[in-house]
Design brief:
The structure is a single chain. The protein is an alpha/beta fold and 364 residues long. It has a single domain, classed as Rossmann fold (3-Layer(aba) Sandwich). Helices cover 40% and strands 15% of the residues. It has 12 helices and 12 strands. The chain has helices at 3-40, 83-87, 89-96, 122-140, 159-176, 191-209, 240-243, 259-267, 270-273, 287-298, 328-331, 358-363; strands at 55-59, 74-78, 105-111, 143-149, 180-183, 216-220, 251-254, 274-275, 280-281, 310-316, 337-342, 345-346. The strands form 2 sheets. Strands 1, 2, 3, 4, 5, 6, 7, 10, 11 and 12 form a 10-stranded mixed β-sheet that branches. Strands 8-9 form a two-stranded antiparallel sheet. The termini are far apart.
């Protein structure tokens, strides 16, 4: 082979070595970020990659096999002020960038977070946290709805209060008619978060029984990405819960272009970023960004910048109660949505009363 003929092969080998070095660099970054999350949460540093073996995230451009109505408002039901910027604001802002759809966003806050500042009275904390929520929402352009239930008590509401809350949520879902509804995952990391999901599910059942529009239901990422046991389904339904120490969302959204705005909204919640009693930053203040960096590395595409950020979601399908169609990729700009795949097949779980904990469902 002549020297001239060898040139393309040499260039290919140089490119492959460069790509390998870059991949190793990103792998080291991911391992360091995960180590920090484990250490700060008092957990053993067990793995160096957030994606379980045999899985990957691939870009999925929306091509529905049947006509899908993706129009309509977006709704989030959250336990506390600050949960929106933690888990969803950046994705909503990405959705709003696609101007084909009008992106009205309603954020329903079940409590005022009045128990969130040690050493302060509930009245003082409530006033400040409501002001913080409004300041954060102003940066995003969403509508806030405060329901005012007791902070820390969503898992232990009296039967009458629980029924009233479920009925109120069902009426709001019916009035707003969201195409997409986002809620906390039913994990045991925070009782208020888990029961927000269960209460929302009961409200969605009432909404469906009334013959109203059934929305796409998404659960956002778990806190700090750490695996937690579900209060709703058995481990057999999601074996990764038992096998892997990090939560693996069904999908990831590229929020690189909107993450900083969402971070600014989050930092409007000053009492949650900085502990006024201790005079120091709170433990998790920077871990939201750390998790976004990890999620970005999970779908990092060739040629992408190191500053990629991601946010995770899983689609919950309950036939007759929630939509079987995931409208999230339809509402996002092209190239923003990445789906978890295994062995070249897409995954999806349909939930019903046969494969969840029926006692919990029926108790609501």
């Amino acid at each position: 082979m002549s020297q001239l003929q060898q040139l393309p092969l040499q260039r290919l080998q140089v490119r492959e070595r460069s790509d390998n070095r870059l991949a190793e660099h990103f792998q080291r970054d991911e391992a360091l970020l995960l180590s920090e999350i484990f250490r700060r949460n008092g957990r053993e540093d067990l793995v160096q990659t957030a994606t379980p073996p045999g899985y990957s995230y691939v870009r999925e451009d929306a091509r529905p096999s049947v006509p899908v109505d993706a129009s309509g408002p977006v709704m989030q039901i959250a336990a506390h002020p600050g949960d929106g910027p933690d888990f969803f604001y950046a994705t909503y802002l990405k959705m709003a960038a696609r101007t084909k759809y009008r992106s009205d966003y309603h954020e329903v806050l079940l409590t005022d977070g009045e128990g969130g500042v040690a050493g302060w009275s509930p009245e003082r904390t409530r006033q400040i946290r409501v002001e913080e929520a409004r300041a954060g929402a102003e940066l995003v352009g969403n509508t806030l709805h405060f329901l005012g239930y007791p902070d820390g008590s969503l898992s232990s509401l009296a039967a009458s209060a629980r029924t009233r809350l479920i009925t109120t949520l069902a009426a709001m879902i019916g009035d707003i008619q969201p195409c997409l509804l986002v809620v906390h995952p039913p994990k045991n990391d925070h009782p208020d978060h888990a029961y927000s999901f269960l209460l929302t599910l009961a409200a969605l059942e009432l909404n469906a029984q009334a013959g109203r529009r059934v929305p796409t239901l998404l659960i956002h990422d778990v806190e700090f990405g750490l695996q937690q046991k579900s209060l709703w389904t058995s481990p057999a339904l999601d074996p990764l819960t038992e096998r892997y120490p990090l939560h693996s969302p069904d999908s990831l959204v590229d929020i690189s272009s909107t993450h900083q705005t969402a971070q600014r909204a989050l930092h409007e919640h000053k009492t949650q970023m900085y502990d006024p009693a201790l005079g120091q930053p709170k433990l998790y203040a920077d871990l939201i960004d750390t998790l976004a960096r990890v999620r970005g590395l999970q779908f990092l595409a060739e040629g992408a910048p190191e500053t990629t950020r991601g946010q995770g979601f899983s689609h919950i399908v309950i036939p007759g109660v929630t939509s079987e169609q995931n409208v999230l990729p339809l509402r996002l700009p092209a190239g923003s949505f990445y789906e978890r795949v295994h062995n070249d097949r897409q995954e999806g779980i349909f939930y019903d009363r046969e494969n969840v904990f029926p006692a919990l469902w029926d108790s609501l």
